[in-house]
Amino acid sequence: MQKEGNIKDYVIVGGGTAGWISAAILARMLQGTQHTITVIESPNIPTIGVGEATIPSLIDMLELLKIPLKDFILATNATFKLGIKFVDWKEIGTHYWHQFGNIGNKIDAQPFYQHWLKHQINNPQFELTDFSPAIALAKQNKFFIPDPKHPTNLSQSTYALHFDAGLVAKYLTDYCLSKNVKLIRDHVKETILDEEGSIQRLHLVDNDPVNGEFFIDCTGQHALLINKALRVGYENWQHYLPVNKAVAVQSEMLSPLPPYTESIAHEHGWRWRIPLQNRTGNGYVYASDYCSDDQAINILEKHVPNMITEPRIIEFTTGKRNKIWHKNCLAVGLSSGFLEPLESTSIYLIMRTMLNFVQSLPTKTIDEPTVNEFNRLIDNEYKDIRDFIVLHYCETKRTDSEFWRMWQHLAIPESLQTKLALFKCQGRLYENHYDLFSSESWYAVLEGMGVRPRNYDPIIDKSQFDKVQHALKESVNALNVNASKTLDHAEYIQRIKSSG
Ligand SMILES: Cc1cc2nc3c(=O)[nH]c(=O)nc-3n(C[C@H](O)[C@H](O)[C@H](O)COP(=O)(O)OP(=O)(O)OC[C@H]3O[C@@H](n4cnc5c(N)ncnc54)[C@H](O)[C@@H]3O)c2cc1C
């Protein structure tokens, strides 16, 4: 075996959330190897400035980067998130929760959901997410970080953060600069390719050209390297998910401080509400075929009290790049694709892309099989998330506007059709090891949208039903009692901030 040369010079173009998360992961994971990482950030193009709700893998990333949680919370005005409350999605006047962490535990080695289904048929008393520790806390605006040394029935709740995107970019910039990442504040005006069509050099407006061996495109919707230079096309998924615009605005902070994101369905789309320590992030996501910008702004103004910024319109195209890695270029963040922020998955996809890349680290000879396998895995991730987001819409019973009536005849991805068909028999779901959303996430949304199977799994009849019913009742009571003894979310944050 002859050792091939390692890639030493990484160049990242873009200084938004994607650029700085990419630089941070690369700097951390390549620590101890000989390399340089350069971030080029345009002084003329602002970052997108939204992207403030996350999922629990963010906490794993902070651990990987060895960033202390308290530090991060202080610097980014972060609050905790235990899940999402979906309002008016199935029908106006209804709501449901999508929890982080588990819902109940297996009984007699069978999924909790199946036992709950049987309970629903016979004298139902409890909703599915009544058995979620995270939701028991969320409903009472409570929060705590489970201590593995002192397990309780709330220990299986997991959590993520809401944060200020601008402050996160600043925090990660400082982190990266302390890890010897080089920053050039300049605008890339031209990308030079070599004779094989790989990227060789970038020409800047004010500085000398930058050579590199591997380039990471974090230029957001500009997709400067992956699209403008390398011409990698885009798979448009708007026929599955027709919303294509958002109007974002900030408002004063909420009291009490909810430990969850809220997603409220409206006439032509949905509205997010993300609570931070000092303010609230809001946005209305809509389909421009059904709603003008003025109408969207009116909806926000009607529903969001105490606005502190002017409404800002953002356009997007749902879909993904045909290849996220092509030649010596990797697209990360909005340059690689976008799915509406209903389940806060974009920042997760940034982390996932970078972690998968580090696990597939190429040498200077970039091998096709490595690139193909990487692209296959990321494709699967995107499609799984796309299907999960479509599920939030496609079973709606709403018919109060053209937007909602459209879902009665809109095509849904074949992969989702297959999954739903299987589920509707006996409530079974298959999981792939790369799926971001577990069966429990699917159960929560399916039940929230009023989708139930025709039967429960017949194996459940082995269990003694009256014992199960009793255990269910005990479990809900114990969760609610323990949640009520926990600190309020705002108080918990205060305690973290003032701890030594
Ligand atoms: C409406 C909306 C809501 C969202 N909500 C969430 C959410 O709740 N949770 C979540 O996880 N994600 C969310 N996202 C996604 C999230 O905002 C993005 O994934 C994330 O911010 C990453 O953006 P980015 O860094 O790719 O792009 P940007 O923030 O647009 O950054 C692009 C960077 O590229 C630089 N650049 C561009 N061209 C050049 C050039 N020629 N030379 C040099 N530099 C250049 C710019 O200066 C900038 O620094 C949301 C997105 C939208 C649209």
Structure write-up:
The mean pLDDT is 96. Helix 1 runs parallel beside helix 6, helix 1 packs parallel to helix 9 and helix 9 runs antiparallel to helix 10. This protein folds into three domains: 165 residues, FAD/NAD(P)-binding domain (3-Layer(bba) Sandwich); 172 residues, no CATH class; 71 residues, 2-Layer Sandwich (D-Amino Acid Oxidase, Chain A, domain 2). The strands form five sheets. The chain has a seven-stranded mixed β-sheet. It is built from 15 helices and 21 strands. The protein has 500 residues and is α+β, with helices and mostly antiparallel strands. The termini are far apart. The structure holds flavin-adenine dinucleotide. Flavin-adenine dinucleotide binds next to helix 1, strand 2 and helix 9.
Sum this structure up briefly.
The protein has 500 residues and is α+β, with helices and mostly antiparallel strands.
* Estimated radius of gyration: 24 Å
Q: Main sheet, how many strands, which sense, barrel?
A: 7 strands, mixed
Helical content band: 25-40%
Mean pLDDT: 96
**Treating each run of at least 4 consecutive H or I residues as one helix, how many helices?**
15
State the domain count: 3
Structural class, by secondary structure, is alpha+beta
Q: Based on the structure, what is the oligomeric state of the protein chains?
A: single chain
Low-confidence residue ranges: none
Distance between the termini: 53 Å
Number of E-type strands: 21
Q: What best-fitting shape do the alpha-carbon axes yield? A: globular
What compounds sit in this structure? flavin-adenine dinucleotide
How would you write the strand order of the largest sheet? 5-4-14-15-16-13-17
Strand content: 15-25%
